[in-house]
Amino acid sequence: MKNTITFFLLLLLAAACNLPVTPASSGQTEIGTIFLDYNQETTEVFLQVQIMPPESADRMDSVRVVLYTLPDQEPAAAFSLKDDGTQGDLLPGNGIFSILAATDPPLAFGAYLIESTAYSSEGTVLTQTTTTVIAEEFPPVIASVDMPEIYSLDPDTWTDLNITVKIDDPNGADDIKYVRYYINTDFLTVDCEGNYNDNPQDDNYQSDPTWQMEYSHTDNEGLLVYTTSIPMRPVDDGSGGCGKTGIALFRFLVKDKSNRQDTVSEIVLEIVSCGDGECQAGAEDAETCPEDC
Ligand SMILES: [Ca+2]
Ligand SMILES: [Ca+2]
Ligand SMILES: [Ca+2]
C-alpha cells in the first residue's frame, strides 16, 4: 500500500496528463499501472510500468514497452525500462520500471496502443496493453481584451468595471491554469485632494492571487471567454474614502497547464469622475452624469 501511495505521488510529480490503467488486485505477479507522458518540446517520453506486488519485481529481468500507432497498429517506438534508479527511474527496487528518453523521430500526435511486456528470470512473460492519446499542446494566446478606455466614477455609489478577455488555446479551457490581471496604479491620484505620485513607474504592475478572471464560456469562434468585475469606489464612498482618478494601466496574463503563457500590457484605462465639472465624452453624458454634462 505504501508503495502504491508513493507511486501515485510520483505520478503527480511527473505532471501526468495520461490516465493510468487501474491495477487489478490479486496475489499473482502482474503488470499494474502503465503511465506515459510525452513532452513535445524535448520529444522526451517518460514511461512507468508498475509490477505488482512490488516484492515480486526483483524476479523481473526486464520490462519492455512498444508503442503502436492507432488505428493501423504500426510500431512507432520501443523502450527498455529499468527499476534501478537510472534513466529516469525515480526510486530503485520499488517495482516501478521507468525510462526517460528522447524519441527520434519525435512521436506523431495521435492515438497509441501501449504494449508492456515483463520478462521474469524464471521465463514467465507478462503482457498488458492500454491506449493513450498524445495531443498537441498549443500555447495560449490573448486574442482580445474588452474593457472601456474611459470610466466615470459615480458620485456616491459603488459601480462595476466589467472586463472580458478572450483566449485562443485549442487545448480548451481545461488546459488553462489561470487568467490573471495586474494593475499599475502609479498614475492615479494618491489622495482625495487630487495629488499624484511624484515618481510613477511604467512597469509597477501589482497583482494578487485572487485577481483571477473567471471562465464564462467558449464563443462560436472557439475562443475561451473570461470575465471579471472590479468594484469601483465612488467619488465619495460616504465614509471618508474616494475613488482614485487618472490613468490605470492593466496587464493580463494567461498560463496553461504546460506553463506556456501570454501577456498583454499597457492597456490604458482613464478613470474620471462625475462631479469634476468636466463632461468626459465616451464615459459621461446627460443621462449618466447630468452634473457635468
Ligand atoms: Ca523504480
Ligand atoms: Ca495549451
Ligand atoms: Ca466628469
Can you lay out the helices and strands and say which pair or pack?
Layout: H1 2-13, E1 30-39, E2 44-52, E3 60-69, E4 75-81, E5 96-102, E6 110-120, E7 125-134, E8 141-146, E9 150-153, E10 159-168, E11 176-188, E12 214-218, E13 224-232, E14 246-256, E15 261-273
Parallel strand pairs: 9-15
Antiparallel strand pairs: 1-2, 2-5, 3-4, 3-6, 6-7, 8-10, 10-13, 11-14, 12-13, 14-15
One calcium ion (CA) is lined by residues 137-138, 140, 169, 171, 175, 256.
Provide a descriptive summary of the structure in words:
With 293 residues, this protein is mainly β. The chain folds into two domains: 133 residues, Immunoglobulin-like; 133 residues, Immunoglobulins (Immunoglobulin-like, Sandwich), CATH 2.60.40.10. It contains one helix and 15 strands; from the N terminus they run αβββββββββββββββ. 24% of the residues are buried. The protein binds calcium ion (CA) (3 copies). One calcium ion (CA) binds next to loops.
Structure summarized in a few sentences:
The chain is mainly beta and 293 residues long. 4% of the residues lie in helices and 46% in strands. Strand 3 (60-69) and strand 4 form a beta hairpin.
State the helicity in percent bands.
Answer: under 10%
Largest beta sheet: what is the strand line-up?
Answer: 4-3-6-7
How many individual helices?
1
Secondary-structure element pattern, one letter each: HEEEEEEEEEEEEEEE
Main beta sheet, described?
A: 4 strands, antiparallel
Mean pLDDT: 90
Strand element count? 15
- Distance from N terminus to C terminus (CA atoms, Å) equals 74 Å
Q: Identify low-pLDDT runs.
A: 1-24
Identify the CATH class of the largest domain. Answer: Mainly Beta
Shape type: elongated
